[in-house]
């Protein structure tokens, strides 16, 4: 492995950590309805758990109501049960073939709890990025020890990895602050 490969590996793994953070933050609900909130809810489809989006159309009726329209009539009850049993605190209502999912208004206390969850996700991602930095630095030291890279190359590469880490930590802070603002907006 070369110095360039170590840096490229660290960068790609840090990018994956950021993508995971974005996904996790998207699961934290704000006061507004959005179709993505049901993405991780699984429904039993002929013995296999599949995301609701693979068995139904999901769209917004208004800012606080999601409409779920299963493609098969017999799936309505299963979809409704899956939404109710999810940890989202939603209470779907069946209306013929459609299922309406009203988003309850968030209390001030619940908003504060959700901001803590968002901060926690951000901290976990920062820890992951710092661990990747440590792994990259150890790999660079091993290259010097094995005489595959010079100490000057190692020092420059460590500086590059540190700059990459700083950029990613700043992006994590920005994403978490943006999510907190979304949550606290009434």
UniProtKB/TrEMBL annotation:
Family assignment from sequence similarity: Belongs to the RRF family.
UniProtKB keywords: Coiled coil, Cytoplasm, Protein biosynthesis
Coiled coil (UniProt feature): 129-167
Described function: Responsible for the release of ribosomes from messenger RNA at the termination of protein biosynthesis. May increase the efficiency of translation by recycling ribosomes from one round of translation to another.
Name this polypeptide is given: Ribosome-recycling factor
NCBIfam families: frr
Lineage: superkingdom: Bacteria
HAMAP family documented for this protein: RRF
Gene source species: Paralcaligenes ureilyticus
Residues covered by the Ribosome recycling factor domain: 22-184
Keyword Translocase on entry: no
A GO-annotated cellular component: cytosol
GO BP terms: cytoplasmic translational termination
Subcellular location: Cytoplasm
Gene Ontology molecular function, alphabetical: ribosomal large subunit binding
PANTHER family: MITOCHONDRIAL RIBOSOME RECYCLING FACTOR PSEUDO 1 (PTHR20982:SF3), RIBOSOME RECYCLING FACTOR (PTHR20982)
């Amino acid at each position: 492995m070369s110095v360039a490969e170590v840096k490229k590996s660290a960068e790609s793994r840090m990018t994956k950590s950021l993508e995971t953070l974005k996904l996790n933050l998207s699961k934290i609900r704000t006061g507004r309805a959005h179709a993505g909130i049901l993405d991780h809810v699984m429904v039993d489809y002929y013995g296999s758990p599949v995301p609701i989006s693979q068995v139904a159309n999901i769209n917004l009726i208004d800012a606080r109501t999601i409409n779920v329209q299963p493609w098969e009539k017999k799936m309505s009850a299963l979809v409704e049960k899956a939404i109710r049993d999810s940890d989202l605190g939603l209470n779907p209502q069946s209306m013929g073939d459609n299922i309406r999912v009203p988003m309850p208004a968030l209390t001030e206390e619940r908003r504060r709890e959700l901001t803590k969850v968002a901060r926690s996700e951000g901290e976990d991602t920062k820890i992951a990025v710092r661990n990747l930095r440590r792994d990259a630095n150890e790999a660079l030291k091993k290259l010097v020890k094995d005489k595959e890279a010079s100490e000057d190359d190692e020092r420059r590469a460590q500086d590059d990895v540190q700059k990459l880490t700083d950029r990613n930590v700043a992006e994590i802070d920005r994403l978490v602050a943006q999510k907190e603002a979304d949550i606290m907006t009434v």
